[in-house]
Amino acid sequence: MRLVVGVLAVLLLAAGCSTGDNGTELAASTSGDGYRSPVWLGDTVYYLAVDSGGAAGLMRAGPGRAPEAVPFANCRAEWLVPAGENRIGVVVDCGGRNHRLVTVDAGGATADPPAPLDYTGEGATWDAVAFTGYTWQGGCGLRSFPGSEGPCFGGPDARYPVIGPDRRVLYLDTRCGTDEPARRGTYAVCRHDSAGETTLARGVATPAGLDARGGRIAVAGTVDGDAGLWLLDAGRFTRVATGDFRGVALSPDGRRAAAPLRDEGWLSTRWSLRVVGLPLS
């Protein structure tokens, strides 16, 4: 009997199943290239499911709601961003790296894109109040759009920009302005505002995502050798889930985090979309 139990445990691990308390599983797959770019809209999580050829389908899931495809036929989806209370933004590639930001409501209806933008796969964000966003633009670092005429901030390693409730931009970079750089191979959490760039914390290795909502800051990556989801408060990281998370999105009230989790097994790689309850501050 012990032998049977042991063999079953090994098979589960080999299949790439997650162990530990990593919240509620909303979706899972052992085919394709996983999930990315989760965004909350109400109590539902929208995300991209990527097939083995790199094409991404727009999906949604939620507590008590099975994963389902969202009607969407506007070029190739690349990234999702919050775009107000009733919409999400979809960065799309319309061929030849002709990127635009399209807004989508809960039914999948789209509006005309507000403007073209340069996008290279290192994240984007959109402020639905100020009607401006930020994305990575080569060696320039981060630059606002539409227009893309403002000055750059951040360096060539800047990625995963997000706009916090106070309208200030947070992002990950190897150095925040003229502050002391992060140690080699790691990133710092930076804040950009009219006063320039400020370091909030250092020491994130293999960064995979950043979000700021509900008065909280969440990071997906490795800190002090431990991979997981982390909350950042007063310059200190607290791990709230363990594993190889490939992105993070905070719910509007900051009490939950949605995150794609990658489990590398002996026989296959298993992806799941998790919702993790966060401790009350």
Q: Would you write up a description of this structure?
A:
The protein is mainly β and 281 residues long. The protein has a single domain (2-277), classed as TolB, C-terminal domain (Neuraminidase), CATH 2.120.10.30. It has 1 helix and 22 strands. The protein has one helix at 2-14, and strands spanning 24-29, 35-41, 44-50, 56-62, 65-69, 76-82, 87-93, 99-105, 124-127, 132-136, 142-145, 159-163, 169-173, 187-193, 196-213, 216-223, 226-233, 236-242, 244-245, 249-250, 256-264, 269-277. The strands form 5 sheets. Strands 12-13-14-15-16-17-18 form a 7-stranded antiparallel beta sheet, with no helix packed on it.
CATH fold group: Neuraminidase
Strand ordering within the main sheet: 12-13-14-15-16-17-18
Please, how many domains? Answer: 1
Radius of gyration: 19 Å
CATH homologous superfamily title = TolB, C-terminal domain
Number of helices: 1
Which percent range describes the beta-strand content?
Answer: over 45%
Q: Report the count of strand segments.
A: 22
Uncertain residue ranges? 1-20
Q: Helicity level, as a percent range?
A: under 10%
What's the CATH architecture? 6 Propeller
How would you sum up the global shape?
globular
Q: What's the SSE pattern?
A: HEEEEEEEEEEEEEEEEEEEEEE
Main sheet?
A: 7 strands, antiparallel
Features:
about 5% helix; about 280 residues; about 50% strand; seven-stranded antiparallel sheet; mainly beta; Neuraminidase; 22 strands
Q: Outline of this structure?
A:
The protein is mainly beta and 281 residues long. It contains 1 helix and 22 strands.
